[in-house]
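note to self — DONT lose this again. spent like an hour looking for the file last time. sequence + predicted structure for the chain T wanted, 496 res
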Amino acid sequence: MAFNNTPQGEQSLSEILQVRRDKLASLQQEGRDPFKLTKFERTAYSADIIADYDAFEGQTVSVAGRMMSKRGMGKAIFCHIQDDKGQIQLYTRADAVTETEFADFRKYDIGDIIGVTGYVFKTKTGEISVHVQAVTLLSKSLQPLPEKFHGLTNTDLRYRQRYVDLIMNPEVKDTFVKRSQILHELRSFLDGRGFIEVDTPILTPFEIGATARPFYTHHNTLDMDMVLRIETELYLKRLIVGGMERVYEVGRIFRNEGMDTTHNPEFTSIELYQAYTDFHGIMDLVEDMMKTVTEKVCGSLVIPYQGQQIDIGHWEKLTMVEAVKKYAGVDFCDWKSDEDAIAAAKAHNVKLPEIPTKGAILAEFFDAFVEEKLIQPTFIYDYPVEISPLAKRKSDDPAFTERFEYFINATEFGNAFSELNDPIDQRGRFERQVADRRKLDPATRAQVDYDYVNALEIGMPPTGGLGFGVDRLVMLLTDSASIRDVLLFPTMKPLD
């Protein structure tokens, strides 16, 4: 797909494309095909020259990049090239380069990639520049870039052609540089706490009973259907059983579900598991991790996000029951039976879950009344057992589990619990979960992961676990409104 930002009355897009191809063909006929060049010895970057002009003044440098602007003034040509670190102006005169080089320079198009050698100086207007003494065309751009004044503003097109988006919108590149920094700081934090990064399978042999819908594929050699993973949890906890006491994985996860500003079918998560701690220990780790990473990436614990000032330095803690009572005015303790909960849901226009138990209805009240109020960082803990099949029950109230989620700007950022390590209880929950799925969808291919149950029978120590979405964290720390803004190549429907 090409861009057509040509003002009315000038060349049509097809004419521009043809002119560029004609220029390439002419060079190729002359034996000067730019695509046959293999490298260019660069000695300096734009930002380094500008930042340390005193050291570079008068020095000969070789710079390379994409031509972003060009204007001719008689026997002189000015242009700007963009490299990995920014932009710098180039200046050349007819008497400073060979006749062929100057003639070529006049023919170069916006978008062409060139390499030049020259000395660093300041123009009469004070702009730091490179006075060109030799120039080489390194790659010919056969399609025009978007017209500079309007830029690339079509959001759908920006996502589809991220390579053009990165060229035209420097702030986009800044977002992805910061994404890399965030991942580095997350790894640094966890490595510093004694965690080991591991890799677990992306292709798994069957669909587990969880509610997330998977993607299916087929393994030809084994002649079996396989599933793209919806989590890394069960493999990581097998490693805890095996004696690796602190493990984490930065993993791509795949869920065949809806798409919106916080959901993409494939996304990046970090799951971690620590032996001999519980969900309180993980809660402390999350708060410390969020403060550390935010401070290092943003330089402050108070950060802007979509018009809000978010204070990562302060966290509220509420049980789910307390949160529903605070924001919905409904007390779970008043429900003596599932029927009481159903009546309360109907009275407050709260949708009933597929299996309407007290605990599941409490979670629906939370979704309906609470989540949207949680703007500042908040831990919500003690989740109903019905919606927490892998979490350990609370010893003093087995209707609830030792589980928490944390929320910022009305969005869930992570999920953690004291891991269930009772193999008998786990087997029963898995089997009930799969049975419930089959009632709702007789065609489901969900199965119980009995090998994981077997691992628990070998013995897993008390363990705290956490899973959180990296993409949502990047959204928060880069003040990005949509998950597509922090994915280099988000999932898009083909135009045809």
